[in-house]
Input
Amino acid sequence: MPGKLKVKIVAGRHLPVMDRASDLTDAFVEVKFGNTTFKTDVYHKSLNPQWNSEWFKFEVDDEDLQDEPLQITVLDHDTYSANDAIGKVYIDIDPLLYSEAATVISGWFPIYDTIHGIRGEINVVVKVDLFNDLNRFRQSSCGVKFFCTTSIPKCYRAVIIHGFVEELVVNEDPEYQWIDRIRTPRASNEARQRLISLMSGELQRKIGLKVLEMRGNAVVGYLQCFDLEGESGLVVRAIGTACTLDKLSSTAAFLPACNSPSKEMKEIPFNEDPNPNTHSSGPSTPLKNQTYSFSPSKSYSRQSSSSDTDLSLTPKTGMGSGSAGKEGGPFKALLRQQTQSALEQREFPFFTLTAFPPGFLVHVGGVVSARSVKLLDRIHNPDEPETRDAWWAEIRQEIKSHAKALGCHAVVGYSESTSICEEVCILSASGTAAVLNPRFLQDGTVEGCLEQRLEENLPAGCGFCHIPYDELNMPFPAHLTYCYSCRKQKVPDVLFTTIDLPADATVIGKGCLIQARLCRLKKKAQAEANATAISNLLPFMEYEVHTQLMNKLKLKGMNALFGLRIQITVGENMLMGLASATGVYLTALPTPGGIQIAGKTPNDGSYEQHISHMQKKINDTIAKNKELYEINPPEIPEEIIGSPIPEPRQRSRLLRSQSESSDEVIELDLSHGKKDAFVLEIDDTDAMEDVHSLLTDVPPPSGFYSCNTEIMPGINNWTSEIQMFTSVRVSRLSNINLTNQTLNKNFNDLCENLLKSLYFKLRSMIPCCLCHVNFTVSLPEDELIQVTVTAVAITFDKHQAVQTTKTQVEKSSQRASIDNEELLQFPLELCTDTLASHPFSSAKEHLESTSSNSGIPAAQRAMPVEKASPLTEGHFRQRSAPACANSTVGVVKMTPLSFIPGAKITKYLGIINMFFIRETTSLREEGGVSGFLHAFIAEVFAMVRAHVAALGGNAVVSYIMKQCVFMENPNKNQAQCLINVSGDAVIFVRESELEIISTQQPIASCQPACSGGEIAT
Amino acid sequence: MTNELDIFVGNTTLIDEDVYRLWLDGYSVSDAVGLRVRSGILEQTGATAGVLQSDTMDHYRTFHMLERLLHTPPKLLHQLVFQIPPSRQALLIERYYAFDEAFVREVLGKKLSKGTKKDLDNISAKTGVTLKSCRRQFDNFKRVFKVVEEMRGSLAGNIQQHFLLSDRLARDYAAVVFFANNRFETGKKKLQYLTFGDLAFCAELMIQNWTPGAVADSQLDDMDVDLDKEFLQDLKELKVLVADKDLLDLHKSLVCTALRGKLSVFAEMEANFKNLSRGLVNIASKLTHTKDVRDLFVDLVEKFIEPCRSDRWPLNDVRLFLNQYSASVHSLDGFRHQTLWDRYMVTLRSCLLRMYHD
Output
């Protein structure tokens, strides 16, 4: 009996009228935890009852404390008939179970009913007394902290990053236990809500146990999803990264290194070509029998001709480093060996983090992904998790071997997802293959790692771009050059990753959101035939998605993608692919070539003319984009770049192999024998369409930027105004003559129009940036496409934005702000930055940079620091001035980012993970589908805010709407929607308010100086 | 391809003031889109008509959801569903309760009943205010009326407290409620020249001086909505001023002596004195009848304002006359109801002066 849960029901307000005769309500409350229920007295005839109950005490195991939600039901007493339920509140008491989070939950909660929505509010106080648990066989994992944030949370320091944790639980879906006629919507909805709440608790507890086994104390980047499999059950699964975190004392909190995970990785992942290879997700081939076996080795393309997925990595690496690196080589090899040993014992060396502590990330190998098609009705034992576990294990194995093929021993920015349509399920996983610094992964001190970094003397801001794989034995054809920053190591010409832009990466100009959108029609089919059809389509889709991304990236004049997320959605009669990423121009990578169009029928004069016309348009667009995104890399004389690398130039060779059944290997050589240009062949209408769609993407209106990463590259002077929003659109396709082209166009228009609407709606915030733009596509019915977008608009200071040429200052300020730190405390990073960024600062610096590319002695480097810091401070003051303006009491901010601009997060109160169902049988009366969903989403926001406020918080960071499943039946005037959201409840303090408290800087009083102000990680 | 569902939900509820105005003015979505297009917003922002349509729909839906809360503004402040900064909340409420001058003049003094509501389409046609907007304004009047009708304490104060309106708007509503409750006739043709401002001014004075709340010791029955019955009853006593011939002559000579040489219309005044005085005193003495209360403004215009106006009295002369007219009564030895007279005349004088214009 290791815990006592105490609940007090204080009062209610704004209750609905339950008695028509008196226009009043006789309300009472049932408080239920586990199997114990307490009731308050009936408070007669009031819409604002004051129960002021005693403390209801539940004596429970901590296992139950973790699994069970506290369930509060408000009812209307009725003497003659059954009491009517007004609504419920579920409270997750998990935040009370670890000492550093909240100590009490107290506040007004919306009373929610799945049929009527919010019906008034109830004031509740909840406390937990935990006793020390001496039981050796304990099943609970109280005390393990959970964070949705995919970086080390701000007020913590990562001592060790242990690695991947995952768990999956299965249950029957109550929705399917009822026979349609008997089921009352409310009963079934509530059963589902409660079940998912229970399963989430259980899942979290089990993951917590795994973390404890690994000797960790926290899970970072915790991502929980549920799969509505229908008749085969309801799956709740979660992945995360186990860590040992140290709470920073208040003074320590100001130390740079620790609290800003996202801030700086010294060597960043390196990415590569959009090589489909890496993405060679192998759609599995359906076998004759029930389950599909997935064969990673086959689906991989050519380099892994051996079916041995455990390719031995070390020898290859040795070779690679030998040829590629001068100084870097030996170190690389050593590092790799170390890391490898550190990672070897791990089944899956995966990390759900997208931003890392300094020094963690050494190289990036590129995006790895895997997909697999499964049939849900073939699960032998649907109530047990084994089958699903095995499915995911296969996929992860595949990812792991892909990473190995890229010379990487780890995968970062890892995520998993599913798409289900009837009995077909596509499982997807993706991440970024990377080489990590081993010191974080084992018991050792982080300080050591910091030291080491200094010694390494690696070129700043470009290390992550350097290829981790062996140049002579490349896993795929790539075009390598010497790094444009350090000139010592090889880099690919294009880099794709799923992580955030490392803070020390040097970029030119601004970034932008790049999306690839694609539809493919598919015949309606059953079971295996259907699965086969899907499996066959998948590789083509991925290939096209990559081609589109590549084309659009080139069209923008950029050379790297961050935060890449490819979603493939399956419907009855089509597949949809949507890839989003943030394009940037990395200084370390070569300038991208243009796009060349080639026709296949050269003898036709008008055709030629048409081609040249298109070519001109494309060239114009590239030039315009370069101007728009301020991409003006310095011209670097050829000789500095060094001798050309002797290697075949067919860098954009895309290849992909299919399912094992097909022997053919599709090889597309798009390089067209030219060095710099990316060639598009217009040989049919399809390609024509592609070119057109390339050109129809309209850039955001002036004053607007957008990205899907945490921070917009090239903007760092954020002001404090933020607006998080969710926008949903459902479009009906006209049934006639659906072709892939019309479908593509429709889908493209849908997304483009949605973006345009967002820009229009948020125009009052200009200049502003849409950050963390997260698109989700689903196909709820035959002709319906649903697109859901969640993002946050953040305003920034225009004046600063103009001075983008001062990259140096920006860089350092950005860094600083990310750190929440005083600048001067990490001069080294500053100077490296300075170094790396000078090509585009002043001419003098430019000179310096080019000459110094072989590595400047530390002393010399230190110089720019002094220059940079005062400037930066100045900037901070300027821009933080507006930050203090608006801080209203009672407001709860929500943001998908891990930070609040202009503010410092002082405490994490616990994870928010909520699941709601809303149903209506009077759709028209509630304003149709739009009215229904609009109200529901507003209510979900309200409930999230209320829970955060009750925990004592004033913001939710890393907020995500993981699911928004909408179903309608207009004929019956019905609709239903399920929403799952999560995030981290936090307390933040405005920089300006901090100022007042700490009078460290006298000048600050007049001009609030907030270092972390704008970005505040 | 058509959008079946199209929504945007912000953590902070987005309010577009221009669209809010269009919504309040009762325009349909398509009319509102048309008006926005004409405002040149497409050129300014580079948006398309589709975007505008979607945006307008979205705002309309939001306003529609907010409307329920706007009916009881304190709820808007305490609700949790829409996160709206306080300044925006105030704006939403203030604009929602604002009303059109043209509309209020049509409804002022009418019973806020179903019958009047049915008549709104005529009012709409006459005033050019959309029917939807008329309904909102009418319902606002009625809602405020119902809430404060039975309440004690200051009428404007109650309105402000329960509807969170600005001071100015709360006082206007007090006038509307006061007029509706006493059913003062304001619609006659000869009253058309009076603005809502004139009438609200009069209402405020009457609330201050002629209701039970105006008397300090009547705290127990501090009602601002009804006229003080006792006072109206007492007003009959004033009749002596015109019924007693000597008193009337004395009054006249006092006024004439005082004003001789000071009025440009002295002769007209002298000739008309008895008529005017009879008019004003008879109005007072008849106020015990509900019917005559309703006709108060008609009577004031007919019995005083029109005669003066036809003789082209300048406003200043009217002021001098009324001042002297009420002051001279204090010199009438045989008249005992000085306090009563002042309570009546101070208010009436101000009202008349305000109403004396073209």
About this structure: The two ends of chain B are 60 Å apart (CA to CA). Chain B has three domains: 17-82, 101-193, 229-355. Chain B has a mean pLDDT of 90.
